[in-house]
Design brief:
The complex is a heterodimer of chains A (548) and B (54).
Chain A: H1 12-17, H2 31-36, H3 41-69, H4 80-115, H5 123-142, H6 168-196, H7 209-240, H8 254-271, H9 274-288, H10 295-309, H11 324-336, H12 338-352, H13 361-384, H14 386-392, H15 396-426, H16 432-458, H17 473-502
Chain B: H1 17-53
Classes of the chains: A mainly alpha (548), B mainly alpha (54).
Chain lengths: 548, 54
């Protein structure tokens, strides 16, 4: 494509592809070359998404074991130690194996398409970032078959408890190291791509919100994943090399581990939710048929949330004991996060206000996200209050809170994004009726699963236990029924996705009428190579290409 | 038999000059970010060691 031809003069699908010839996809032949050695952002994105979904199913199966044991009071199915292994592994797998890789997969697929880049900036490192993950999780999952079993001290890995495990500690630490390296390389690639590979006329304030939220998330990753790596390295030396970083007997401080862990852990929460904010900010304007309300304020709110996430970590450990001034500071700083988060919620509502709304599956999941994530946010504000947190701490109220944030927040955001972009990836429209069944099945069951856990927590049921007093029986039974139904709904989701990939109504390039964004200017399915030659793109096709 | 010399082209690479230039800048960005990440790792260990020494 010659650069003096403006994109407006050409068919947009051709502009995106750059040229027209027969063998236009250049897909490497053979499984090894195509998938193991791939440097293509779309293929690597697909690998990440498949991997994340496999981990989601494994982590979900562990959740089913947990809910099965908690269906009734008493010990029915598993030993207490195995139950603890399940809670620990479920969390590690869902956080590091499912949610984070799913977002990296979406970033790989969509960021280059959204900014008019031919690929990620560092394609070979991109391949490496992905292929580290299967080894990391094989290492982690192999601990289930070791004498002494898998780690059982909780995903927070607090010493001295975690150090009482067998040799799973070494495997856990190395697995975390590998996941961390993968995440850091992925984050570096995202930042390098956004900063260096945008089409020449795409400025920072022209970028879609999904790109913005990922840019900020990537900075968070680079700042906090190395801190986690440092913390677990010191755990490793405490376990195997007789150091005493976190051993009170040797002059160390176990509480310091909690500070270091949560300096990572709180931003990690936003690492898992900011890209979902970005996805929802793409979907709501499309189905409300209105531009996103307050685009620039959305960018500032995302940056503000990211900044605040670094200075609130100790609200996870009010009960450990800290000076009153510290408690007050962390309480008020935490409550401040509600302000930029509120900006986002109100902007989404304002985007929908008087819009010509339709309720396709991605929109339904986005609406559920807005409502249910806000419920998780409200319980978060409740827990920010230091005096009352002493009541909630380590109860099922906490479990309810973070599952509203991470399941109806992060996971619903991922599912919404999957439905929204699946036609672009596969070239086929998914079956809308099946999508809606999946939505209602998931939304009803997820509330039956997690809402009663608020009441359990307020009534004093502790988390991470396989048995409980009989007064908690009824809500636990409801919660388990909801859990089994939600698990089955996700098996149904596999069927919907499989059916779409295999065939169905052909998707147009635009997919959603009136949708804005460069990704909708390339054919569906997106060709193996897009935006191959550097040149300006048509800003009119971008949601925030010109005026905000 | 005369054969055209084989050009080494990565199957998924992009040969456009400006893109190559952008990738060079991206490598610099990546190196800086890698150094920052390493800095955070060292800082976390340093904080704990300082605390233990005090």
């Amino acid at each position: 494509m010659s650069q003096d031809i403006t994109p407006n003069e050409m068919n947009h699908a051709e502009v995106a592809h750059g040229h027209d010839h027969h063998d236009h996809d250049h897909k490497p032949k053979g499984f090894v070359k195509r998938w193991l050695m791939t440097t293509n952002h779309k293929d690597i994105g697909t690998l990440y998404l498949i991997f994340a979904f496999a981990m989601f199913i494994i982590g979900g199966a562990m959740a089913m074991i947990i809910r099965l044991e908690l269906f009734q009071p008493g010990l029915q199915f598993v030993e207490p130690d195995f139950f603890n292994q399940m809670t620990t592994m479920h969390a590690l797998i869902m956080v590091f194996g499912a949610v984070m890789p799913a977002f990296v997969g979406l970033a790989n697929w969509m960021i280059p398409l959204m900014i008019g880049a031919p690929d990620m900036a560092l394609p070979r490192m991109n391949n490496w970032s992905f292929w580290i993950l299967p080894f990391a999780f094989t290492m982690l999952l192999s601990t289930l078959f070791m004498p002494g079993g898998a780690p059982a001290g909780g995903w927070t890995m607090y010493p001295p408890l975690v150090l009482q495990g067998g040799h799973n500690v070494g495997f856990l630490v190395f697995a975390v190291h590998m996941m961390g390296i993968s995440s850091i390389m992925g984050a570096i690639n995202v930042i390098a791509t956004i900063m260096n590979m945008r089409a020449p006329n795409v400025g920072y304030l022209n970028m879609p919100l999904f790109v913005w939220t990922w840019l900020i998330t990537a900075f968070l990753l680079i700042a906090v994943m190395p801190v986690l790596a440092g913390a677990v390295t010191m755990l490793l030396t405490d376990r195997y090399f007789d150091t005493s970083f976190f051993s009170a007997a040797g002059g160390g401080d176990p509480v310091l581990f909690q500070h270091i862990f949560w300096f990572f852990g709180h931003p990690e929460v936003y690492i898992m939710i900011l890209p979902a904010f970005g996805i929802v900010s793409e979907i709501i304007p499309t189905f409300a048929r209105k531009p996103l309300f307050g685009y620039v304020s959305m960018v500032y709110a995302t940056a503000a949330i990211a900044f605040l996430s670094f200075i609130v970590w100790a609200h996870h450990m009010f009960s450990v004991g800290m000076p009153l001034g510290g408690e007050l500071y962390f309480m008020y700083a935490t409550m401040m996060i509600a302000v930029p988060t509120g900006v986002k919620i109100f902007n989404w509502v304002a985007t929908m206000w008087k819009g010509s709304m339709t309720f396709e599956t991605p929109m339904l999941f986005s609406l559920a996200f807005v409502i249910l994530f806000t419920i998780g946010g409200f319980s978060g504000v409740m827990m920010a209050l230091a005096p009352v947190d002493l009541q909630y701490h380590d109860t099922y109220f906490i479990v309810a809170h973070f599952h509203y944030v991470l399941v109806t927040g992060a996971v619903f955001g991922i599912i919404a994004g999957a439905y929204y972009w699946l036609p672009k990836w596969s070239g086929h429209m998914y079956n809308e009726r099946l999508g809606k069944i999946h939505f209602w099945w998931s939304t009803i069951s997820v509330n039956v699963l997690f809402f009663p856990q608020h009441f359990l927590g307020l009534a004093g049921m502790p988390r991470r236990i396989p048995d409980y007093s009989t007064q908690f029986a009824e809500f636990n039974m409801w919660s388990s029924i909801g859990g089994f139904a939600f698990g089955l709904a996700q098996v149904f989701f596999i069927y919907v996705v499989w059916k779409t990939v295999k065939g169905g109504e052909k998707a147009t390039a635009e997919v959603w009428p009136g949708a804005k964004g460069l990704e909708w200017t390339v054919p569906s399915p997106a060709p193996h190579h897009t935006f191959e030659e550097f040149g300006p793109v048509d800003l009119d096709k971008m949601a925030h290409g010109k005026d905000h | 038999m005369n054969q055209e010399p084989i050009k080494r082209v990565q199957p998924d690479s992009v040969t456009d000059k400006q893109t190559v230039q952008n990738r060079k800048s991206a490598k610099k960005t990546a190196l800086i970010l890698g150094a920052v990440a390493l800095g955070f790792f060292i800082w976390s260990v340093f904080i704990v060691m300082k605390h233990a020494a005090g």
